[in-house]
Please model this.
Amino acid sequence: MSGTQTGRGAAPPAVELRGITKRFPGVVANHDIDIEVAAGTVHAIVGENGAGKSTLMKTLYGMHRPDEGTIAVNGARVDLNSPAAAIGHGIGMVHQHFMLADNLTVLENVVLGAEREHGIGAAARKRIRALSEQYGLGVDPDRLMEELGVGDRQRVEILKVLYRGANIVILDEPTAVLVPQEVEELFGNLRELKREGLTVIFISHKLDEVLGVADTITVIRRGTTVDTVAPADVTARELATLMVGGELPVPELSESTVTDEVMLRVEGLRVESADGRAAVDDLSLSIRRGEIVGIAGVEGNGQSELIEAIMGMRPAARGSLTLGGVDITAWETRRIREAGVGYVPEDRHRHGILLESPLWENRVLGHQTRRPSANGVWIDAAAAKADTRRIVDAYDVRTPGVDVLADALSGGNQQKLIVGREMSGEPRVLVAAHPTRGVDVGAQAAIWEHLRRARAQGLAVLLVSADLDELIGMSDSLHVILRGRLVAEADPATVTPERLGSAMTGAGLDEGTGEGTVESVEEGTGEGADQSDQPDRSDQPDRSDRPDPAAPDTPGTPDTGTQRPDDEDPA
Amino acid sequence: MTNTATGFLRGPYGVAAPALLAAAVTVLLDFALLAWAALLIGAAAAFIASLWLLPSGRPAEPAGMRVVVTASALASGLIAGLLTAAVLDLWLIEAVAYGIGALAGGAVGPLVHRRIPATLALAMVAVAAAVVLSLLVTAVLLTATGVDALFTFSQMLGYGVQPDSLVKVLNDGTTFYLSAVAVAIGFKMKLFNIGVDGQYRLAALLAAAVGGQWVLPPVVHQVVVIVVAVAVGGMWAGIAGYLKVTRGVSEVISTIMLNSIATGITAYLLHTDRLAVELGTNNIGTKPIPESGQVPGIPTGFMGANTEIYGLVFLAIAVGVGYWVLLNRTRFGFDLRATGMSATAALASGVNVKKMVVWSMVISGGVAGLVGVPQLLGYSHHYAQDFPAGLGFIGIGIALLGRNHPVGIALAALFWAFLNQSSQILDFQDPPIPKEIAVVTQATIVLTVVVVYEVVHRWGRRYEQQLVGAELGRAGVSA
Model:
């Protein structure tokens, strides 16, 4: 795997970036980037959100030009002033969010815009078959795109790039949309590409994956390259330290603050999706004052539906919700919020923020009926602004003021504002989905600290997260959700991320029985490892044209529908 | 300059000094030049002097943005000065009117320059650019058809500013304004109420019929007519809202259909067997509203016109103020805007989106119901077959032009009415110039404004992101 160093002397590097600097007015997104990608290797570029990975890749793909520095492809200096020029030099990019038309076939999607290569008929089909064969992609040119799962779609995107003659493939956070099994398949494909002599540049911030697939790893921090290492020489921990430039904060709780008083009780809850299928089935749990209850699960197993049912955004088909002894099953969202339930949504652009409104109006959002945002039927702008300033200070939201549009802030700062808002007004219950997703390390630690403090004061928290360390570290008790049911309960004090991960896929439940850390509450289904047919995975960006079941009467066309939670810094 | 002096000049004196300077220059120049020229020179000179001598107090901005801000501030000062002077000139002697006008213009310019947000300045420049562009297109079209464009424009301008024309512009602008506000309420929710046309015609017919039926005490009578109009308009639009939330019917489709149905219903009801009576030869209409229900006009003898301004121009002003207050100061308006910007985020914040759709359609229709009222109570006093139609569609263009802002809509409505009115003179030229060129100008201007504004909007957003980036970049360096 680390045989890359040997071949370097012979051939010129596939891509060589020297002293790349890219400035945006007022910010330096990249400076003094030096990267050398050897031909025929998988080269990973890792860094935190906002470290400048995307800016760099846009430079390499010709989407903007660097202010300083040079790019050389296969030893020759090139000037990449457009994606077309990049493709001309054999550089192709697979974007994080797929750009595919659902109602066209694979063939049609591949040839779209590349009709000159092999036409649009038999020749093109033959070429696609040949490429698919050569690289082991297993793509059938005549399947309709909407029949394909996420993994297949990604392979089609890779094929599109290969079809256009790329021999250097950039993959931008390719695993963000995949479940673990699909990630493995993708890595198989990447090794195949490498075997066929292609060069792969792989952008990620998931260190385990990077260590598993890359030949060389370049770490970017604050816009510049800090080190290039071989995966054999580093551990994930060391890599993380390189990435953040210091020790990683550790999610952990101090002594238990759990009381006997049940704050939120969910009993026998069933939530149905638009087609009548059970997204959440017979689910019961309770959260007590001062307790954080974690929900672990592969995305799309009913977490979103559970949360939206608790928030009153989806009706409960069966079962009941009780808040502090009061039945809230039939309540509207507003009444539930007024009763003291805070909500940190998983997709902040869809559910958490008005991008084209100033920060202080975003402070009002969700608190329209309560002081200090409102006074009777009136919005109290002055008080809302004052309170927004409080949040900006307390949660370290980086902004010049509270009158700038939310849009101007980076994703992490938007998230800090949302968390701060939802913790205002002394909530009794906080429903938090991925509260630290996309925020920088310092902010992550701060949000955890705020959660701990609120918990000590009696806040009951339902925590859904994809970050298993966060779940294990921050939860007083931990449930595993699979296909809408709670299938196991784990003890956060003893469970490991690996064991939790296998419990999430429905497999390996017995493994834990020796120590009793993961306790199966229900028979596993045996074939639960195969998640690829989960029909309601809410994080598929390519399905965003589907009507949203949570808002069936969305007036007009909500333009936020295509925006994803894992955004990068705009600059 | 010491610090105290700087603070002093940033305060009220920074405005008062240029205002006085402008007034002085204008009054002096008035002896030598035409009054309006004197005013323009005076206000501009004061503005430039204030730029030179006084601290602007603006944050650091790129050069391009500084130009934009300066230009829009200067333009607002000059326009404010000219308008003030022109209105005052109706009562006062010219030198005094223009002196006061210069005072206003000299104060507004520096004030705007200091306070205007960069994004708003961009928007103003965008609209100005669109106006110039559409006039250019019109000029090209005229020249291509062998008509002297400058002559045409000067004829239009000359006719448009005559007192009787101005009264007509104000009256038409009133109805246009109401129609555009009705459309804008829908736009704010991302709802496209194309049905304003049917809503106001049906509302005007039924309100006229009710108003003509009885004699009620004054005030009560007018209120009854207005309430009926609002109720009918709101109900008619509410049907579209109801269909949308219960059956998922696009409001675009349903309001177009409801327009046709409204046409059918009014034709059916406007028959002598039903709501109509003979109104002289060859015309039938509803029974005229007795004097107790009429709204007297504002006499215009002071400005030398023979017609009256609709008394209900104040109704339109009240609707505009109400629209602004509702949207920007109330919880309901916040929910409405939030739903328009992101229905999903609004839902998560506790807004009942379905209820908001129905309510905003009802309110939009209610305002639409008012569109015919100024004409009904102030001028015709009955609904007949010649009652103006198509105002709902004009409202769409004006709402777009005014960017759904109450002040923007008002300016757009007046501008639209001015083009309509001033083009009337073209028929009387020899050879006649087709007055449809006003329609060309209106259409071009709506198109260009929509496009240019979208571009400027993106610039503005990027500009703000850069400002934030710059701010944080500095913070990052110092930390």
In short: The CA atoms of residues 301 and 483 of chain A lie 5 Å apart. Confidence is low (pLDDT under 50) at residues 1-9, 509-516, 522-571 of chain A. Chain A touches chain B through 58 residues (CB under 8 Å).
